[in-house]
Specification:
Radius of gyration of chain B: 23 Å
Number of helices of chain C: 11
Distance between the termini of chain C: 36 Å
Number of domains of chain B: 1
Largest sheet of chain B: 2 strands, antiparallel
Largest sheet of chain C: 6 strands, mixed
Number of strands of chain C: 14
Strand order of the largest sheet of chain C: 6-7-8-3-9-10
Helix content of chain C: 25-40%
Number of strands of chain B: 4
Radius of gyration of chain C: 24 Å
Strand order of the largest sheet of chain B: 1-4
Distance between the termini of chain B: 26 Å
Strand content of chain B: under 5%
CATH superfamily of the largest domain in chain C: P-loop containing nucleotide triphosphate hydrolases
Structural class of chain C: alpha/beta
Oligomer: heterotrimer
Helix content of chain B: over 70%
Chains: A alpha/beta (271), B mainly alpha (326), C alpha/beta (304)
Structural class of chain B: mainly alpha
Largest interface: A-B, 50 and 55 residues
CATH architecture of the largest domain in chain C: 3-Layer(aba) Sandwich
Shape of chain B: elongated
Chain lengths: 271, 326, 304
């Protein structure tokens, strides 16, 4: 009996070993094929839209920031941006933990943002938010701060129409995802207000802001936060060396303005 | 030939060494599983109670920000895009890349054991394959049979090949089975990046692509098997040349450990890259780690190993069939 | 001799590192004979045997087993050979049965039924499924012979087959070997340092020293050459004086004199002694031992 069992072991081990040899040879061959053949296509994975947990964390104030380089904080020496300073200001005023989720991407346009909002994780975070702050539109209008040379009205109007329709969709989407959180859409300033063409550019930006505010007004709890006035005078003191993005001081101005609005909201909620 | 290989397998099994090896692995895997588990816990604590998805989203945003910078090279941009799609896959499929399943543990385990642990285990099996026959005197009975010497040695070599496959398989099965208790058994489809090449100080990313983890693991195990075969062949050669199993083990142990040390300090001694023992870490090429010496690549290391292996094989067979047995 | 010799060794030489170890050894085994191989350590006994079984390749010379050349027709030659070189070293971690199966599988011409035949032949039926590590030396020896007989060889080569056995074991082994030669028509080549064993076991003997065969002959012939006469006489000194005039005389133990056996001259020597007044008490012939013979042939080189 024992001998039979022993013989059985030998056969099993041998067969398993042979099978394993084939498997490893296959793996090795695959490695060679995979590592040494060039011009691979990046395989795209099918996007699955799993609904993930969206429970809000109690006791913490979640700020969800999205948009372009302004929200990212480009130009700030500390890299915090207005969202960073906003969080700092709010922390002074409340005992709550503040959780900042910043998904802003440099150079984001309204179209890009709309696309980003289709990602499940972004959607999940939007759902979690208590406060949503965003900047968008700067890249639609200025195109990396270079293209306001073309002051042709028709061209600008074209851009504006696209932008407005995108923004409307963004608002709708955000409201769908999160009907409660107040959305602060930080408006545009004119970085070129001390340049020769300042009259023209300022009027364009003012109009842009006006139209955006109009759109925002069509939704519940969307606040279009003006910044034009903050940068109207002494713009050079508040701009980064690229003469386009705000510097630390500029961001602090924006943060303070948004912070004052949020404080107001909190008190109203508490009362 | 089948009968001869069967004989060798029988002797191998009866010597119980294979069981000892499996026991060693079965003992080590829980140890590493616990270490890995601790590390993950530690990481979680550092991150605080923040959701891993948030952290990952942050990384994605960072990547996207870097992508939007106009100053980056095209190649780097391509790599970032691939990384991005990998990270987004994790998010969309709800895979926490820092909380691995058993397949991830398997991968990490072989990547860390390819240059020392597994070669050592292989060495334990192979070292006495021929030398024990010499020192035990049974070689006299073995070689006075109506079978040519090269056939006898080949049967031993094939038995070695089978047992190496068996060891590698045991590593795979045990590491998966045991770590899965802690980490769960899922995660085979997690996407991983591969195809990095290093040229000088630069990491070339033009061939980087994503493969699912199961393929990645299969590829790495293929490489592990290859390394084990080369180490096995060299041990086999020593086992033919030397009568004493202890001497075989001593020499192999010294060179394997020397390899591990050398790999850390030979970056300026370029010709050291022709040693077999600094070329054992083949999985590093797949995962895109820096090479110990400039000019090493997967192709280079595999070729160096192949040359050593073939040389060892030829030496073993020539000496064995010509040698006088006293 | 119309038969093919079972084993034919011709002009075998071996040089190791420029040193001539074996200097032209030749001998032949006919079927059914037990051939003794005798020589001191370092004489080249073991080297010669290892060359015959293919473990060492000879520098020159030919070895034919059953008519097949060991160097050019290795597998065919080995089919006719069974051997134990030095100790019967088997795999201690396998059972006796597994050991035999192991060697049976190495030669496809051996049927599995042969296993039970050889086990019965060496009488290991009871312990065959035990591990070899639990065997006594005698049992290992028998298992060694069993494996050597597996392939129904024409030639059996046993290097020191009685080494380490107790007297009963030695006797058993001796009878077993003789029986094999007689019943299976097996040629057996035996090397041993126990000369009495060779004397009792072998039909013919080759005496080897310093890598060369000094004499090959039947045991009887070799011994007959060296037959002696032992004298007991009084007075001994006078007897010695007279005899030494006729032949070579040595003094033996217990007041005896030893001379060569020379039949036609013996009565003369006796007469001369009697005439001189010596009383011859005893006059007997004695066959010498192989030890004496060996000393004689090798010129004083001792065994062991």
């Amino acid at each position: 009996m024992k001998a039979v069992l022993k013989k059985y072991t030998l056969t099993v081990v041998s067969i398993v070993s042979i099978a394993a040899t084939v498997l490893w040879l296959f793996g090795l061959g695959w490695t060679l094929q995979d590592q040494f053949s060039t011009n691979k296509k990046v395989s795209q994975f099918k996007e699955k839209t799993d609904s993930t947990s969206t429970e809000k964390q109690d006791g913490t104030l979640t700020i969800f920031a999205l948009g372009d380089s302004l929200t990212r904080g480009t130009g700030d020496a500390d890299g915090k941006g207005y969202t960073g300073y906003l969080t700092e200001r709010l922390k002074e005023k409340t005992d709550q933990d503040i959780n900042l989720l910043n998904t802003a991407i440099k150079g984001e346009t309204s179209r890009g943002l709309l696309k980003q909002l289709q990602q499940s994780e972004i959607q999940r975070q939007a759902k979690q938010a208590d406060v949503i702050v965003m900047t968008i539109g700067g890249n639609d209008l200025f195109q990396q701060g270079a293209a306001l040379e073309n002051l042709d009205n028709n061209a600008i109007n074209g851009k504006k129409q696209i932008y407005l329709s995108n923004v409307k969709k963004i608002y709708t989407q955000l409201r769908e995802l999160n009907p409660d959180a107040v959305i602060y859409h930080v408006g545009l300033y004119n970085p070129f207000s001390n340049m020769p063409d300042s009259k023209t550019t300022s009027s364009i930006v003012r109009d842009w802001n006006f139209q955006s505010a109009e759109t925002a007004a069509g939704f519940n709890n969307i606040v279009y936060v003006p910044t034009f006035d903050l940068f109207q005078l002494q713009v050079e003191n508040y701009l980064y060396t690229d003469q386009f993005h705000p510097n630390t001081e500029g961001y602090k101005l924006i943060a303070e303005r948004v912070a004052s609005l949020i404080k107001f909201e909190q008190e109203e909620n508490e009362s | 030939m089948i009968n001869l290989v069967r004989n060798e397998m029988l002797k191998l099994l009866r010597k119980k060494r294979l069981y000892v090896i499996i026991l060693i692995i079965a003992f080590l895997v829980p140890l590493f599983t616990y270490a890995q588990f601790k590390e993950i816990q530690d990481q979680r604590e550092k991150m605080g109670n923040q959701d891993w998805r948030t952290t990952l989203q942050q990384e994605i945003t960072d990547t996207q920000n870097r992508l939007s910078s106009s100053r980056i090279q095209d190649e780097w941009r391509k790599f970032l895009k691939i990384r991005l799609s990998q990270q987004q896959y994790y998010l969309e499929n709800d895979i926490d890349p820092r909380a691995p399943g058993a397949p991830t543990f398997m991968r990490i385990f072989v990547e860390n054991s390819i240059d020392l642990l597994l070669p050592l285990l292989v060495m334990v099996i192979v070292a006495d394959l021929v030398s024990s026959e010499s020192s035990g005197g049974t070689i006299k009975l073995l070689l006075t049979r109506p079978v040519k010497r090269w056939r006898i040695l080949l049967s031993k070599y094939l038995a070695m090949l089978l047992s190496i496959s068996f060891i590698v398989l045991s590593v795979a099965v045990l590491s998966y089975g045991i770590s899965g208790v802690v980490f769960g058994y899922g995660g085979w489809n997690m996407p991983l990046l591969t195809g990095f090449t290093v040229s000088g100080d630069e990491l070339l990313t033009e061939n980087v692509h994503i493969v699912p983890q199961w393929q990645y693991i299969l590829m790495e195990f293929g490489l592990v098997w290859y390394v084990c075969m080369i180490v096995g062949t060299l041990t086999f050669m020593l086992s033919v040349l030397l009568r004493s199993t202890a001497a075989v083990m001593g020499i192999m142990l010294a060179s394997l450990i020397a390899g591990a040390i050398l790999a850390n300090m030979v970056s300026s001694w370029e010709s050291a890259k022709y040693f077999f023992m600094v070329n054992l870490n083949l999985t590093n090429y797949v995962s895109g780690m820096a090479t110990p010496i400039e000019g090493m690549s997967l192709g280079f290391s595999m070729s160096v190993l192949a040359v050593w292996g073939i040389a060892g094989f030829i030496i073993a067979f020539v000496t064995f069939s010509k040698r006088d047995i006293y | 001799m119309s038969q093919i010799p079972a084993l034919e060794v011709e002009n075998l030489t071996k040089k190791i590192k420029g040193k001539q170890i074996i200097k032209g050894v030749s001998f032949t085994l006919v079927p059914g004979e037990v051939f003794g191989f005798l020589g001191p350590n370092g004489a080249g006994k073991t080297t010669t045997i290892r060359m015959i079984v293919g473990l060492i390749s000879p520098t020159s010379g030919t070895i034919k087993i059953g008519g097949k050349n060991v160097r050019t027709e290795f597998t065919e030659a080995m089919r006719h050979l069974g051997c134990i070189v030095e100790n019967p070293e088997l795999y201690p971690y396998l059972t006796g049965w597994e050991n035999l199966v192991h060697f049976q599988k190495m030669d496809s011409s051996i049927p599995k039924t042969r296993l039970n035949e050889v086990i019965e032949l060496v009488g290991l039926q009871n312990r065959i499924h035990d591990r070899v590590s639990t065997y006594s030396l005698g049992m290992r020896q028998r298992l060694g012979i069993a494996q050597a007989l597996l392939g129904k060889p024409k030639v059996l080569i046993l290097d020191e087959p009685t080494n380490g056995l107790d007297p009963a074991g030695i006797r058993e082994m001796r009878e077993f070997i003789r029986q094999l030669a007689r019943e299976e028509n097996l040629s057996v080549l035996v090397s041993s340092h126990l000369l009495s064993e060779i004397q009792l076991m072998c039909d013919r003997v080759a005496i080897i020293s310093k890598g060369a065969v000094l004499r090959t002959d039947s045991v009887d012939n070799l011994l007959a050459e060296q037959e002696r006469v032992i004298w007991r006489a009084e007075p001994l000194s006078l007897a010695k004086e007279i005899l030494s005039l006729e032949t070579e005389v040595t003094e033996g133990p217990d007041d005896t004199l030893i001379t060569l056996y020379n039949e036609p001259l013996l009565p003369d020597w006796n007469e001369k002694l009697v005439n001189a007044g010596v009383k011859v008490k005893e006059m007997r012939t004695q066959l010498p031992s192989l030890e004496d013979l060996f000393l004689e042939v090798t010129g004083g080189e001792s065994i062991d």
